[in-house]
Amino acid sequence: MVPHLVPRWPVCLFRWRAACTLGACVPQSAWARASRTPGPGSPRGAVGTSPLVRRGGSSSSSRAPEVMLTRERYPVQRLPFSVVSEEDLAAFERITPGRVVTDPEELEASNVDWLRTVRGCSKVLLKPQTTEEVSHILRYCHERNLAVNPQGGNTGMVGGSVPVFDEIILSTALMNQVISFHGVSGILVCQAGCILEELSRYVEERDFIMPLDLGAKGSCHIGGNVATNAGGLRFLRYGSLHGTVLGLEVVCPAPPPQVCTLLHPQVLADGTVLNCLTSLRKDNTGYDLKQLFIGSEGTLGVITAVSILCPPKPRAVNVAFLGCPGFAEVLQTFSTCKGMLGEILSAFEFMDAECMQLVGHHLGLVSPVQESPFYVLIETSGSRAGHDAEKLSSFLEHVLDFGLVTDGTLATDQRRVKMLWALRERITEALSRDGCVYKYDISLPVERLYDLVSDLRARLGPQAKHVVGYGHLGDGNLHLNVTAEAFSASLLGALEPYVYEWTAGQQGSVSAEHGLGFKKKDVLSYSKPPAALQLMQQLKALLDPKGILNPYKTLPARA
Amino acid sequence: MVPHLVPRWPVCLFRWRAACTLGACVPQSAWARASRTPGPGSPRGAVGTSPLVRRGGSSSSSRAPEVMLTRERYPVQRLPFSVVSEEDLAAFERITPGRVVTDPEELEASNVDWLRTVRGCSKVLLKPQTTEEVSHILRYCHERNLAVNPQGGNTGMVGGSVPVFDEIILSTALMNQVISFHGVSGILVCQAGCILEELSRYVEERDFIMPLDLGAKGSCHIGGNVATNAGGLRFLRYGSLHGTVLGLEVVCPAPPPQVCTLLHPQVLADGTVLNCLTSLRKDNTGYDLKQLFIGSEGTLGVITAVSILCPPKPRAVNVAFLGCPGFAEVLQTFSTCKGMLGEILSAFEFMDAECMQLVGHHLGLVSPVQESPFYVLIETSGSRAGHDAEKLSSFLEHVLDFGLVTDGTLATDQRRVKMLWALRERITEALSRDGCVYKYDISLPVERLYDLVSDLRARLGPQAKHVVGYGHLGDGNLHLNVTAEAFSASLLGALEPYVYEWTAGQQGSVSAEHGLGFKKKDVLSYSKPPAALQLMQQLKALLDPKGILNPYKTLPARA
Q: What are the Low complexity biased-composition ranges (chains A, B) (predicted)?
């Protein structure tokens, strides 16, 4: 029996109970752009001023409070790199004329992460336009022992994209050209600084889509996506960047030494360009070197260009937003949906009731379905609208009949699809307005995914304002967030290492898609054995022997 | 207009013009098993005796002519490894009791590749059952400076799986246990020696399929598939193993040295087990080390276990076998099919008229459609038979109306699907019966894919018996094969480096999916720049400092 709450199944319907207010319905991408992207003309952008990214409930102040310096907040020691001198600035001016930024106000946006949790004190930002310029910069910095922080859209969650001390910021913002696009194969080759959303638009005009999509698309750079092995909303369907990235061009600080000196590297002072920018789906000639750099967070080399396989644009996209009575029903809905929607399933996201309360309270978004303990968002992407609608309709009828879902709404037109997605995509934003946020991004066996959230609620009690769980259920990826009015060491102590130990106990990953960056580098060993960690250190030493590239990130400090 | 030659479109029909004779219709997997797999009880298997894998037309002889030793046929020098002594054999007997093979007859099958083109003279084959045994073996061999040749199903095309000289053969044949399978996520964890076809059967019983399939499935090992980054028939749909392999357990000859000695490795004599055998779809904790080993052909470590993501088993599989009047029409059929079949397209293979002649002549297979310059095999896999049939029917009507296809046949039941696939899968076998085969496995921009075949036909003239092109068109992967009555240096000289230079001129890959192994290692530089090659050498030196693991393979000899 289809309950009365969903009167028009399987007709394509849209029940949006209450319209968003204009203010709360700032499109996510516009929000991202306004708050995250330092535009070329105003590099400071709105990071320092936008109320949207500031923590705490108030949005009336015209200026966010200053973020504490990382070196003051965390127990971290500056490594003995050189300090940028006037001569260095002059040299940089020769390499990137007119694109050496030293104005402190302009630097501010690139010194602070968008979550406003870490802050470096870099005195110089370079904006190369070509791979050769990047190579010259790295050669120079290697010679001079100057630390470098590669930076894309600065949208990372773990403090990996901003300096910890005074590292030189190497921004890919001006490396934003599409190099080629092949209309039959869908292979896109572009510079690393292209903004994901702009690439999406570019390939969509040519009947393809990007194989990844994420909330930060309005400002994140494709090079940063690859460097952090971004997951996102299309992962379930199109898989990992390790599969869809076909080629990379990367600059490493140190060149491969001559073969005869392999065991005792005699490093030549040169920024080696590693051109593996192939546009081939298959290439088994030797080791697949590009894989080393995917997810290495800019610590092994600077990605300067990317070749990526774009899937054909689906002709029909449907989004169903459903309410489920419990987590067991969420799981059963997932299994059912994999079977009945099969090849057209492109996303399966979930959020709990507290998430819905937060997007309602802070952003004025209203649930399109009746209040439920859990909500799932299911997206289908297919080549024939009629077939997709039939599949979806059979599926929805089934889950309603079996009580797995108690209410739901369906969207097929683009505007409504976006509105439903906003409920899920803007949770991060709502959380950042709720106070101090403790963020965890965890992979777990799907059947245990929510246990940690319930467990923590009981453990933390009134210490926490909210404990919420949401994320990419289809990928076994939980975003666990805890909010409190202000930072509290005792709350942190109750969370860590408890969360990491709990995760390790389930053979989970303590960083599913956000990476380790600065903030999570010390928890690597919860998910990787000592032998793996040692090999990582060796790879770092091989490719960046002086350790100048994105120091203090990804790997724990050496003992 | 639908031409009269295909009278029953869009009805699901099957026009098999002539039944295969029983002899010629030996199921591919049985053929593979009989000819390639040294079974535990009879390790020599049929390699030495089966007429099916012997070159030359005759199948009456009971014993194939002996294959020339690699060291006699190719200009290769033995490296200064130790020679296995009686003490070594005693030590191996302690590590793998009762599983140390020294009988020359038994060793023969593992010394010769299945194409019967290269032959080593190993005196010992070890059959470990556990990762710990592999670790002990590698530790021992590292200490004693003994070279090791890891071997799976010995089905490689480039001589990577057999010794060149007297390397110890480390077979994964007895490491054939499934470790776990997760019925919701479809994640399979198993030992490296599991045979692909047996894994397929195992997961199919549980409503999943393996993400890869290839002609050698009846004997190839999953560990070997991963070590060689096998592509195969499902690549178009499920992508590369770099995306579908979730975790690996690998044993390296040398352990990571201590962090403090990174630049001057002080190698400890231990076979380090690198356990990255995670069962998570997402895990961004540090560098993705497993990627290093995918496609490294056993030169960096021995893969002992694999965690792999299996897609749900499609409920409907259709195969269309079509005749095309020209290569331009093959390409247009591909573009049309991507658009109209969309998400259900799971394979797009092509073969030319000469391929069809060869499978007819040598294997007695008969074309199910009228003689055409080109044939394509299109497979769909979907979750709803009715929808798939409708899509396929619209597509077929379109390509026939537009003259892209002149004749075709469609199969939906499993037996007929297999018969159509046999036409494509058994080309390799037919070629091996045609005489001496010169094999090339190339990636090219799809629109230039066949130009090289036409070009070579003109270039070689009567020197060649056959010049044929077939392969995974959907992946831009051409299998180019040239046959002649016997080996000829002048024919080889006309082929190489011409084929490689032609490919490099198109920014193609000189090895799309077969790898480099022994036979192609010296052509690596046609597809990779010097900086990449040097980094590969460094990685080899890092993980296998004495170079004991699968020597003479993958990387060119050092100057």
A: 54-63
**How far out from the chain centre does Cα A95 lie?**
31
Q: Give B315 to chain A, closest Cα distance, Å.
A: 9
A537 in a structural domain: no
B339, B341, B343 member nearest A344 (Cβ): B343
Stretch (H or E) spanning A505? helix A498-505
Check if B287 contacts A (Cβ < 8 Å). Answer: yes
Residues B73 and B196 in one domain: no
List CB contacts (< 8 A) between A391 and chain B: 383-384, 387
Any domain includes B18: no
Q: What is the CATH number of the domain that holds A399?
A: 3.30.70.2190
Q: Let me know if residue B227 belongs to a domain.
A: yes
**Contact between A388 and A316 (Cβ < 8 Å):** yes
Q: CATH number of the domain at A161, please.
A: 3.30.43.10
| pLDDT digits 0-9 by tens, B329-363 | 999 999 999 999 999 999 999 999 999 999 999 99
Nearest to A1 by CA among A519, A400, A288, A547: A400
Q: Which domain holds residue B497?
A: 435-527
Distance of CA B230 to the CA centre of its chain: 5
Per the domain annotation, does A14 fall within a domain? Answer: no
Nearest residue to B179 via CA among B268, B34, B274, B277: B277
> Total structural domains in chain B?
4
Measure A175 CA to nearest chain B CA, in Å: 23
Q: Is B342 in the A-facing interface, judged by CB distances under 8 Å?
A: yes
Cβ under 8 Å to A: B residues 425-444: 443
Instruction: Write the CATH number for B257.
Output: 3.30.465.10
The answer to whether A63 contacts chain B (CB < 8 Å) is no
Shared domain check, A156 and A87: yes
Q: Provide the sign of the torsion angle of the four alpha carbons B328, B329, B334, B338, taken in this order.
A: positive
Distance, in angstroms, between B386 CA and closest chain A CA? 9
Interface of A with B in 251-270 (CB under 8 A): 255-260, 262-265
What is the ipTM for the molecules in this complex? 0.88
Q: Give the residue from B279, B309, B339 where a domain finishes.
A: B309
Q: Is A511 on the interface with B (CB under 8 A)?
A: yes
Where does a domain end: B150, B171, B192?
B171
Q: What is the mean pLDDT of residues A283-299?
A: 97
CATH code for the domain of A478:
3.30.70.2740
The string of pLDDT tens digits covering residues B73-125 is 999 999 999 999 999 999 999 999 999 999 999 999 999 998 899 999 999 99
Q: Is the pLDDT of residue A265 over 70?
A: no
The answer to whether the Cβ–Cβ distance between B185 and A282 falls below 8 Å is no
Alpha-carbon gap, residue B154 to B161, rounded angstroms: 5
Contact status of B277 with chain A (Cβ, < 8 Å): no
Nearest to A166 by CA among A94, A79, A91: A79
Q: Give residue-wise pLDDT tens across range A297-320.
A: 999 999 999 999 999 999 999 999
